Amino acid sequence: MSAPSSLPAAPSRSGLLDGAITIVVLVGLWQALHAYAGDAAIASPLAALRHLSGLAATAGFWSHARATLTAFAAALVISAALGIGLGLVLGLRRFAGEVAEPILAGLYSIPKVTLYPVILLIFGLGLGAKVAFGVIHGVIPITLFTLTAVKGINPVLVRTARAMRLSQAETIRTVLAPAVLPEIVTGLRVGFSLTLLGVLVGEMFASQKGLGFLIVNGISLHNVQQTTAVILMLVIVAVAANGALLWLDRRLFHRT
To answer: What backbone phi and psi angles, to 5 degrees, belong to 130?
Structure first.
């Protein structure tokens, strides 16, 4: 009886080792790319870390970080609410879902930068435009994941709920929600990264505040170390947040 309790420890150690090897390989590839392209194209890992630590010691950097975080939080909340709501409606209405799914996938293939003039005309420069860029990047993937989750519900579960004469609220709480939540959480993980990407694009084109602005400012001034350092920080934050969401996903839904 005691043997099964020791099984989960081995995959955990293996996962940590795999993660460490992956980081070492990625840093090695980064260093090799730096050796090939030179300082004019990309900073070395050590130089980027040093520059990032210098930036982190300045108040101006955190002012830009707060601006990005504010826009990202607003965009993520709007993307999640709109995406889950629209996905649930379209998933429960099968014909509407069948019609909307290819349209949404087609719309998502449009380069969002082409909407730059329209976004600026509606929201102007500043927070509104950044949030809008984030939402148009994040809402469609969340909608499609939710729509697919609802469409994939086993009809037997619904028929069983009807046979048990569960009310609509009980059916949603005890049958539908547990069935669709894992896919919705996966959609939120994907939407998280894409919403962050959208906010950064918005800051690069429609703002003079934020980490996206720092990146484009570094490019225009040919400050390679600044550009690489800010991108490094964004990658670290995105990987850490996605890792936390993945861990939460597995803890809640016992997925391997």
So the answer is: -65, -45
CA distances from 95 to 107, 159, 180 (A): 19, 20, 19
Query: Measured between alpha carbons, how far is 148 from 90 in angstroms, rounded to an integer?
Result: 10
pTM, entire model: 0.80
**How far apart are the C-alpha atoms of 105 and 71, rounded to whole Å?**
25
Amino acid identity of residue 63, one-letter, is S
pLDDT in tens, the chain (256 residues): 344 444 444 456 677 788 788 889 999 999 999 999 888 889 999 999 999 999 889 888 999 999 999 999 999 999 999 999 898 888 878 788 888 888 988 888 888 888 888 888 888 888 888 899 999 999 999 999 998 888 888 888 878 877 888 877 787 778 777 888 888 888 888 899 899 999 998 888 877 889 999 999 999 898 999 999 999 999 998 888 888 888 877 777 655 5
Pinpoint the alpha helices (H) of 93-210: 94-108, 116-123, 127-151, 155-163, 168-171, 177-206
- At residue 78, the 3 state secondary structure works out as helix
In whole angstroms, give the CA distance from residue 248 to residue 240.
12
Judge contact between 83 and 187, C-beta under 8 A.
yes
